[in-house]
Specification:
The chain has four helices and six strands. With 211 residues, the protein is of the alpha+beta class. A six-stranded antiparallel beta sheet has the order 1-2-4-5-6-3, with helices on one face. Strand 5 and strand 6 form a beta hairpin. The longest helix is centred in the N-terminal third of the chain and has 21 residues. The mean pLDDT is 91.
Length: 211
């Protein structure tokens, strides 16, 4: 069983994800759903009893600008509460990000809750993974920046339940701008989508920048 608070977060989040995807993938008996919802409702006071998590802007920016950058072939540390890939976040699609030369890569499996058309991922989740993955590029460049725009060109359906390899790299760097590019492929190497995205650092987060 989990021993640390971090391990407990990951363990509980994994179970919640299993429940949510089972909920979306199977027909449910109404009485079973009501009984299940009643159990969940009884746990809400327990989960909300503790203080809110402190996410002050300055601490967050400092952690992003001075975080761990892995060597070539190694993996980035997983921020457990990261919205789209944190292992301790029940809303996430957990994946590990590996540094490979000038690129970063992640193998992702999208489960039933992300299905749009039959057996295909909803395109919004494909775009969200690109956006999240590019955040690791920002970490690699030790930059704090935010998405200005993102464009995804869909080349083929992104399947549910199969490993997909996402790749991203820095296309161009300027003082306050990082242009990222990326693609994703299925196990056979078929190109499923490509991406371009621009990230901009606010002036107040640029060292020695005039107000």
């Amino acid at each position: 069983m989990p021993e640390s608070i971090e391990e407990a977060h990951v363990y509980a989040a994994r179970r919640l994800r299993d429940v949510m995807h089972a909920f979306m993938a199977h027909e449910q008996d109404p009485s079973a759903l009501i009984a299940f919802a009643t159990v969940l409702e009884s746990h809400v006071p327990v989960l909300t009893a503790g203080p809110l998590i402190d996410r002050s802007g300055e601490d967050w920016a400092a952690s992003r600008g001075n975080g761990f950058v892995p060597d070539d072939g190694e993996y980035f540390a997983n921020d457990l509460r990261r919205p789209f890939s944190g292992a301790g976040n029940p809303f996430s699609v957990p994946y590990d990000v590996q540094r490979k030369g000038h690129r970063i890569e992640a193998k992702v499996v999208l489960r039933p809750g992300f299905e749009g058309a039959p057996k295909r991922s909803h395109g919004g989740f494909v775009a969200a993974i690109f956006d999240d993955l590019a955040g690791y590029l920002l970490a690699q460049e030790r930059r704090v920046a935010f998405t200005a725009w993102i464009r995804v060109d869909y080349k083929a359906p992104t399947p549910i339940g199969e490993p997909i390899v996402y790749r991203a790299w820095v296309d161009n760097l300027e003082e306050r701008k990082l242009l990222a590019a990326g693609d994703c492929l299925d196990e056979s190497g078929q190109l499923l989508a490509t991406c371009k995205a621009l990230f901009v650092t606010p002036r107040d987060l640029v060292p020695d920048s005039p107000a």
